[in-house]
Design a protein that fits this description.
Blueprint: H1 2-29, H2 34-112, H3 118-143, E1 152-156, H4 157-167, H5 169-174, E2 178-181, E3 187-191, H6 192-209, E4 214-220, E5 225-230, H7 250-256, H8 263-274, E6 278-282, E7 288-293
Helix pairs in contact: 1-2, 2-3, 3-8, 6-8
Length: 304
């Protein structure tokens, strides 16, 4: 600290001493009264001493503040690292838990396969929802992780949609919903798992809010838009701007007590990651239409 202080002050000290030397030389050459020189020199040295003391005090304060800031910065960085480690441990735990949940879900589905009763159907429906919520939890963990890799390939839409229709076949029957779907053989370039999760969330919403109604799944090859439309209760205009917000369930969610406010939030997060915009048109009391904009170009190229 003292070295730093003198490195700052030595030019001022040297200047003062040189000044005294010059004045001494002038007084000597011109045979001036050295009494006046001594008084001036004493005054200058006194002022120099005061300046050195004041600057030393200020320098110490500055160094103290700098050390405190450095210590605070170190503590803050250590806290961030501890928090990151805790978050990672929590993330890893829930990721493991979700994967472990898939085993009893699969086992339960196999046990229910041979039970052909109304109770069995009801249990299968509930098991489908348990599996969906488990997948939502897994998706939430993955979509928040920048380390999650995308596997971009060309896929037909039917290979993503058909398994979902089979999975929710019983829900369509129990809800008395008429499905209009013709296998879509056109291909899109995307991550099949992520896109299927998007479609599943939208399709599940259609089933949830359109009992005794109809659902249409269509694809426009010209615009490359997949549309999932239902004849359900629709969405209020005041809710439309917020339906993709995290935790927002809106009037429909409050009305049915079935919304978590996470499904469409995940759809939007995946849409951003895949560069596959999702739009919605809806009229209250007249159904909703969700559109996913696909592309034949690798989504990762759009980031460059």
């Amino acid at each position: 600290m003292h070295k730093q202080y003198w490195s700052l002050m030595w030019p001022f000290v040297v200047f003062s001493l040189v000044t005294l030397g010059i004045f001494a030389l002038v007084f000597s050459l011109f045979d001036l009264d050295f009494q006046a020189y001594r008084l001036g020199a004493g005054l200058l040295l006194f002022i120099l001493g005061i300046i050195l003391v004041v600057r030393l005090s200020l320098f110490r304060q500055t160094v103290t503040v700098a050390e405190q800031l450095a210590q605070t910065k170190r503590q803050f960085q250590e806290q961030i690292e501890r928090q990151h480690q805790q978050d990672q441990e929590l993330h890893d735990y829930f990721l493991l838990w979700v994967h472990q949940m898939k085993t009893p879900i699969t086992a339960s589905a196999l046990l229910l396969a041979d039970i052909d009763t109304e109770v069995g159907d009801s249990l299968r429906l509930e098991l489908t929802q348990i599996e969906r919520y488990t997948n939502m939890a897994l998706t939430y963990l993955k979509v928040k992780s920048t380390a999650s890799d995308l596997h971009i390939q060309s896929h037909t839409l039917d290979e993503m949609i058909k398994p979902l229709i089979n999975r929710y076949r019983l829900a369509f029957i129990r809800q008395h919903i008429q499905l209009h779907y013709t296998p879509i053989t056109e291909s899109v370039v995307t991550d099949a798992n992520w896109s299927q999760l998007m479609i599943e969330q939208i399709l599940n919403n259609a089933i949830k809010y359109a009992p005794h109604g109809e659902v249409w799944i269509t694809y426009d090859a010209t615009t490359q838009r997949l549309t999932i439309r239902d004849s359900g209760m629709g969405i209020r205009s005041s809710d439309l701007p917020k339906i993709f917000d995290k935790g927002y369930s809106g009037f429909n969610g409050e009305l049915t007590q079935k919304a978590s406010g996470i499904g469409l939030f995940l759809v939007q997060q995946i849409a951003k990651r895949l560069h596959q915009p999702v739009t919605v048109q809806s009229t209250w009391g007249a159904g909703s239409a969700f559109q996913i904009q696909f592309s034949k170009v690798d989504p990762l190229l759009l980031e460059e």
